[in-house]
Records
---
Amino acid sequence: MKKKITWVFILVLFITNSFSAVGQPLEIIPRMFDRWDFNDTPNFQQLKPPDRNLLDLSKKGVGGVAFSNIAEPLGIAAGKPLSLRYNPLKTNGNRLEVLVGDMVINSGLYDWELVPLTRYVASNSWACVSLLGFPNNSDSLALFQNAFDKCNLKVDDINTLREIIILRREPGVIDIADVFFQALDRDDSDDETFETTLITAIMESEYIKSIKKNDPNNYETILEQTLKNTYEYIEKLFNLSENDQKAFIEFNLNVMWASYNPGMGNTLMGINLLLLDAMFVAGGQNIPYIVDLTKDIPTLRGYNNIPFNPASPSSELLQILIGEKWKWGTYIFSDDGLPIHYWINGNKINFSGFPYYQFMRIKTDGNFEYIPEINNYMRLYYSEIKALNPVIFNAAERWCHWSALFRAVEKNNKVSWNSYLNSINTAYPYNPDSPEQTRYPVPSYKTPRLWMH
């Protein structure tokens, strides 16, 4: 029974790490590149309709920041055709024009945000960035080694550790936490019974039940392969050395994986939204650190060339963040449930509605639900939260508003949208399979793959 007890402890740590954005943080490192030297090829599992429920996004590990709205017109904009026009010959910040009927309006967007914004909308995915991502086979051994070194962990067999960490989220391997806890709930005797209940738990997992329902012809083959994969994974876990068991636990407790929409890797906006997602990790202790990070980024027009004195979080806000007032499990930053409208005022497009943090708790059945007490506070005191770092939140608001407007064009004026995409792709050729060949309007910003907390 020793193995079972050991892995119960490990799995409790898994659950703590997987479903809560609050943890015991490591020492807050004051300099940007002390924590941000984990650079690797960004990866993002794109979600497309009908898999767009924002509440499910966080559970699936890709929902840190997600925008879903299609902007609706108000006032004189109502009923008028909406289109986009990009002119690369104009100065940066004046190249995108919005046509509302016969009115031509300068967007004021700079290409550093316009290009990734366009590719984000064109991806047909609502999710932008998340710290609840998963490692994959494209993540190099050096990336893992750097992470273990930063955590001051001694590792005996880094190749096997990397394999196990990746394997946990590979298709055809049942989530180890779900399987073991189901098995433990059933088991009341010896290891033989535990093995039997483990098989039962795998067969009754959501993954296998879905295969049985939707792909009955291949059910037995997939079940057999899943049992084989899961048992191989468990055996690898059992055979880890004592050092590597400790490293495995600490790594999963202290390292979060960043995932990016395909159009946002290695862009300033990707970094900005990652900071937004990380703002409340570890109960808000990241806030001063994140403010320092934005100061380290060179001044760029349309981003951080604004004077501001970052506010300190109120005691009320901190009580929420560290869970003293309401217990919460995770959060997303999104515009879910709040309409976005646009209207014309003079020669400017104005927007109403804003994204905000939406907190969730885990129910006894393992599903998530929104927490209205916290979320109402987040809406009511949004200006206070925004004051924590106006640079980050201003950029996020623009991203939310303009993505909603772009979706309105995409939905209602396909000809204009396709013409606009061609203009952007001509001005900035993009090859997602060869990111180094992508030409951006500003020097490439390496988006980190890992975040330590």
Note: Residues 1-52 have pLDDT under 50 and may be disordered.
---
Amino acid sequence: MSIFGLVPGDSADQIVCGVAALLYSADSPRTIWQTKGASLAVCNGSALGRFDRYSLLLDGRIDNCDELSEKLDLQTESPADLLLHAYLRWRDDFPKHLLGDYAFALWDGMDHRLLLGRDPAGCRPLHYSFRGTEFLFGSEARALLAMPGMRMVPDEEKVAAWLALVANRNSMTFFQGISTVQQGCTVLFECDRVTERRFWEPQTIPLLHLADPCEYAEGLRCVLQQAVRDRLTPGSRIGSHLSGGLDSSSVTTTAATLLEERGERLTAFTAVPDMEVNDTFFPGHFGDERTHASAVAGRHSNIDHVLISTHAERMFPAMDQMSSTTERPALNPMNAIWLNAINLQAKERGLEVVLNGILGNSTISYAGVRALPMMLRDGRLGGAARLASDYHKHGQSWLFTANLAFRPLLPRVFGRLGDLLRGKPFDLAADATGARHEFLRAYGHRPLDFPVIAHKVDGKELRICMMEGPDMGMYMAATKRLYGIEEGNPTADRRVVEFCLSIPEEQFCRGGIPRSLIREAMAGRVPDTVLKERRKGLQASDSFPLLTAERHEIIKELDGMQQSKLLSRALDLPALNELAARWPAQPANSREWFKYCVRLTRALSIGRFVRRMEEGTIFSRQEANPELYNAANFQ
């Protein structure tokens, strides 16, 4: 379900609420509610709450309805009605009492005010535009762009933020004049004014000090299990993303165990390289995760394991489809290939919910990377010395440990010097996106610095910053519209996030073992093959041959990008053209691989997105294309 509304002027009788899905899909309305000067259309599966002069449109899922009913002393009602009663009790603070994945639009006809809000993880999208006395809101920007007088113009400040790798730090979108309700925030329209307010304040979560460190692992296991359970919709066929990492393995294992109790099956999808991967380029990483994923699937008799080729589609069609449906350029466009293929295969198998672990690195499997600098900052020198020794005992070099301990505490110039000494080649935002330094500076970004997140000393601040990075709402909405699949992310559940933020930093790297908490929590549940793996999985590790096959299309696209005045200022097109002209048979090293498979593809992603906006064709690729796939892509 999507939300769409229009409030022309400040008259309560002129509010018009509807559902964007009516405009952009074949869904037919279930009911039409009409009052004087107002109408509300409700699609199948949407939620409407209404009484007196209050109305609320809810997109999503509320997980604590019973708890809310008890607090409000009500018989259990529909989630939308509960939210209206919660508003009457707590006014604008009522979202603080909600758990779940949701976006809402609430009209208060008594006080003539409209309140919009999104859950802390931003699992449902919600956009708005304020022009004079006219306020538009909708789940997706395309709904607002369809309104009279709205023009599709790229927002240059947002383009600069994307190129500087800080795209989701504010309410801007890529469409000039359209904003997004930020995660964990409300937007109030009242008296021809718009006020944004943050209701979720994770930085205020107190630390939890437990006498027995094992209790942290037990608590994590419990909150993760509840978060997974709430996303296993009764009667729905369930799937999951399963890589070789700790996050998806923990989510898949937990889901399979819960489904087995119900006598139901789980379909787990693993993206695998189409050809042999040269792992020597990537120390500390491995490119083929099928062995680890198969070990997880093999422990559960109710898991159907499906391998998906990372070469299931060509890059540009996958890139266009993802950017068209998510209304933003793909940051890692090579991943769009296998993500689209997994969703299509899930649709063909009749799955209705697919779980993932996208926020795991900042929640359940956080590595405790700020434990050493925090100990030094707080004067806990003995604890820092013991932890450094533990890191060394488990194979980390003293240079690595020193960098981990001191880099966040030193001025940034010393961090860059440390990168050079360690032979780390990529510390510039421009290296990662192909941006022009002058363009980044014009919008206040320092091109010689990696995003400020890398210099956070406090581990809680770092994790909060990491969680604010991805805005998952549009991806989840696109998956639902294209494939009929509900994406579920237990690692972004508010209970999981808040529990993880309450845990002292050193508990995530106890004994010098990174990600020690999730390893302990899942011991005996996830195979040792995964638990003891210290390397990281490398997604789309075999992407260079696929890029090589599209070289002529890439050169053509770069030529087209030169016709755009914005792209000519934003991207270092001469350097990108030189990359395309000097195409190697194989990358000579990881630095060269990065130039083609990361820098070039990201530049193509933002360039093609802006160019299609300027041409007015950005929404031309809406539907999944089964003909682009064939049975050979699924094993």
Note: Residues 8 and 134 are 5 Å apart (CA to CA).
---
Amino acid sequence: MRIAVASMLAASTAFAQPASEPVPNEEPPTGAQSVLPGLLPTARGLSIDARVDYTDVGKDGGKTGNAYTYAQYASAGGFGAYAAASVWLARGDTSNFREDRSGLGNVEAGGLYVMATSARTDLLVRAGASVDVGSMDDQFVHTESMLLPRLGDAYATSTNTTWARSQVQVRHARNNTRLGAALGVDVPVVGDATDRFNFFTCLILSAGWQGGRVGLGGSVVILRASAADAGAADASTGLVLGGDVRITEALRAFVQVGHSLDDGVKGNSIGVGARSSFDL
């Protein structure tokens, strides 16, 4: 009798407890992730970020717009590829331009690898080339259009130069908290920047919160240039704040505001965009 009662108690206990404890709010490997400004998605499958930014740097600069698209594919095993491109528009009647102008930024492509180091943390490594396709006369206009919304890409996607690019990124999700960081190195290969710079380093530190359908995030971006002149170096620091909302499991819409933390740079940027992700 005692054996029968003990067996029944053990069976009822086994049915009452789940087979394994799920990790609270861990991000699924597929679907559109909340947007941490400046960081790439780490979801498996096809991910696309598309955005439009408007920048006004005041009377000493101009009013510019930039449309940027980034696409990547990561297989279930983590290996994949990415590509990115942008176009810019500068309004006339400013101190720099007497008429409306537009053009292309560099076209970028490369390979990547994504791996889950734990149930809550993803590591992404990428390397590629940013190929110069822009006009010689507009080498700084594209840079200006990305300086506040995307400081880390401002120089290595223009300046009449082809660049070699590499980056390591980590993204961590725990409960409602989202944390991320990225370190990149950009080296000019061919073009105007080879005479002025040895390389750029970019550090991005990001933190965010995700609750239900809504996500909030902010990033500090530190871009440092190693100049070709011995001992010369320059650094720029920017701040980007943003929010996003889940439309469907595969789609998020977001808005971001960019601001420079350097004393000599004025103005702000505002951008809207969407992140989509598909498990192919």
Note: The radius of gyration is 22 Å.
---
Amino acid sequence: MFQPDGLQAFVLLGLNFVVTPAILLVILVWAMVIVVRSPKGQVRTSAAAGLGAGIVLFVIYVALGIDALDVPPITGLGIDPGVSLQLVGLVVGTLYGVLLILLVRFLSGTRLTGALVLFLALSSLAALYSYFFGSSQSYRTLVQFLSLGTAFGIFLHILLFPAAVRRKPNASP
């Protein structure tokens, strides 16, 4: 096995823990700069949704690989890293997110706005309550991945159809 010493160790340390992370962070900052410098309107909305979707996918990536990390277990949090409903939750959540933004798009500004707000408030608060105070590990896992899938579905819809979330010119603020 290769054992670097002296200058080799210093160069490898700099490459592994300074240069490579710096390059990756610069790419992330570049993505943020693209969002900020995008022209206002649909292009900026799409760019911001792309950044949001990328962050959500990163969270999904971390959540899916959490059991592969070599860290001591965190006890008392009630999060089951060995998730079994990941894919189902992500797919259903993504579809729900797309459907949710379509409902918001078509129902907001109508007489059904109150019912829409009631549904959003009730479903989010009930899921949040069950997530923190429920006793089932698998339910927490399902809610976690449904939430991530929902966020991804919303961002995906905005990314593909940025005009769908723009306020109508004659709409009140």
Note: The helical segments are 7-37, 42-65, 86-107, 113-133, 137-160.
